[in-house]
Amino acid sequence: MQFNLASLLSNSARRTPSQPYLITADARYSYAEIDARAAQAATVLAERGVRRGDAVLLRLPNRVDFVPYYFGLLRLGAVVVPVNPALSAREIAVATQDTGSRFVVLEETDDVRLEPGVVRLDMRSLLADEAVCTTGTEAVAVDGDDTALVIFTSGTTGRPKGAELGHQQSFLTALLEGDEFGITADDVTLGVLPLFHIYGLSGILHSATLRGQSVFLMNGYSTAAVYDAIEHHGVTVLPGVPTMFHAMVTGEHQGRDLSGARIAISGGAPMPAETLRAMAELLPQLTYLEGYGMTETCSSGTVNGGPYPFRKDSIGRALWGIEMAVVDAAAEPLPPGPTHVGELVMRGHNIMKGYLGDPEATKATVRNGWLHTGDLAWIDAEGYVFIVGRAKELVIRGGFNVYPREVEEVLRSHDAVVDAAVVGRPDPHHGEELVAFVVAGPNGIDTNALIAFSSERLAAFKYPREVIIMDALPQGATGKIDKQLLVALATEAWQGATS
After folding, report:
1. Is 122 exposed, middle or buried (0-12, 13-18, 19+ CB in 10 A)?
2. Dihedrals φ, ψ of 14, to 5°?
3. How far is residue 357's CA from residue 429's CA, in Å, rounded to a whole number?
4. Strand runs (DSSP E) across 175-282, as ranges?
């Protein structure tokens, strides 16, 4: 089947050209305007050498220009690799090497160093070329199974892996997920989640563009700005993470008219019961939904609420077209019930093509069509899924996935560090906070200097804010580091400091 994800924008521009598409605090852009800019962007990018099948890193924040360049790249049949603007030069080098990318689109003020041979496409020069470009480029026909996106997600080895997502797969996910969430073309969606993240890209941009909705774009979270978006800009749908909703319910909302908000969708981490109760008091008219998904599933998986009754402590039921099961160590399905805990697996239209350039990791994760999530869960007789733990050592800080091994490798690269282990402890603002346990060399180490060292080499959401020095890391009977004990120690130290 010939299909290009760029048609999300072009189709809506044909149907409703004057409909506001992207809204900011001080500007509005129609579907026709952004579609024309996407066509021009495609022409400019093609003139710079971008061709069908080329992987191109898109290193831009949540600004209007992200959207025409994103869809412009898709028009050319390029593989878009959205990356966090906070990534260090080392992390960008890994991304370009792993994807074979020769191009990086970034802001003119971005001074990140690129590897030799990688072409810098800065926004200032691209926009200048667009101003004199009078012709747009139509979308090339690609196969629906062709790779549209590569989204990086940390692997259990600690090295980021690029999940390949196809054109048709990404389209179906946006179509079916939004329908089950009850979102319509009349809704205005809050666009504060980063568009380089699969949740923001698929759950917000793809879904809204397909329906011809308006998106209120924000580059960074501000509680007051979210209140303004609801009160003055007509925002009705609030996709977010628990930390965002916690900030909303604890902010200065007296005198604010927030009655226009009608749907809240939370993902990335479990929602604390206290926050959920506070949301019900602040926004009694709100329909609250909780979702579960992964980069490898195009952010799609389950929904709790919406088409199904909301069930406490559950991540909900599988969305349409997706199957879920719990399996034992031999990958045999387990019966329903809380005494039958196993690994959660899923299959359907949402499953990635694989990890780019890593067939072994793909085989380990996707077996016989089933994606193995690494999460431990049980399923009840009605199909509701209950997560009981994570098989992987994942830490979720502010809705972002961080795997400790990558952080540990950076810490161990410091001359004064003998060994390091990183865990997550509970945090009321970020969900979890990263804590590093470090064995120092004979001359010791300054913990603040080590935090600064790691912050220079890791994205802001990855580096540890707390470092605890130990004589030796605790080990279990098998010789492995006892991370369960470290979590307890980190939590105890935090509780002692805050009591």
Report:
1. middle
2. -70, -40
3. 37
4. 188-191, 214-217, 237-240, 263-266
Cα–Cα dist 373/297, whole Å: 10
CA dist list (Å): 119 to 69, 75, 100, 109, 126: 16, 20, 12, 16, 13
Number of residues that this document lists for the chain: 499
Q: Which amino acid is at 406?
A: E
Q: What is the pLDDT along the chain (499 residues), one digit of tens a residue?
A: 667 899 999 999 999 999 999 999 999 999 999 999 999 999 999 999 999 999 999 999 999 999 999 999 999 999 999 999 988 888 899 899 999 999 999 988 888 888 888 999 987 766 666 676 767 778 788 888 999 999 998 543 457 799 999 999 999 999 888 888 999 999 999 999 999 999 999 999 999 999 999 999 999 999 999 999 999 999 999 999 888 998 999 899 999 999 999 999 998 877 877 788 889 999 999 999 999 999 999 999 999 998 889 998 899 999 999 999 999 989 999 999 999 989 999 999 999 999 999 999 999 999 999 999 988 899 999 999 998 766 667 788 998 878 787 898 899 899 899 889 999 999 998 999 999 999 998 899 999 999 999 999 999 999 999 999 999 899 764 456 888 899 999 999 998 887 6
Contact in structure between 283 and 264 (CB atoms under 8 Å): yes
For residue 413, which of 463, 357, 477 has the smallest C-alpha distance?
463
Beta pairing, strands 317-318 & 302-304: antiparallel
CATH of domain 395-498: 3.30.300.30
CA dihedral 406, 408, 409, 411 (to 10 degrees): 130
Identity of the residue numbered 401: N
Kindly give, in sequence order, each residue whose CB lies less than 8 Å from that of residue 432, ignoring residues fewer than 6 positions away.
269, 395, 396, 397, 424, 425, 426
Distance CA 358, CA 340 (A): 32
Domain boundaries, the chain: 395-498
**Among candidates 181, 136, 124, 159, which has minimal Cα distance to 410?**
159
Q: Quick one: DSSP state of residue 368?
A: T
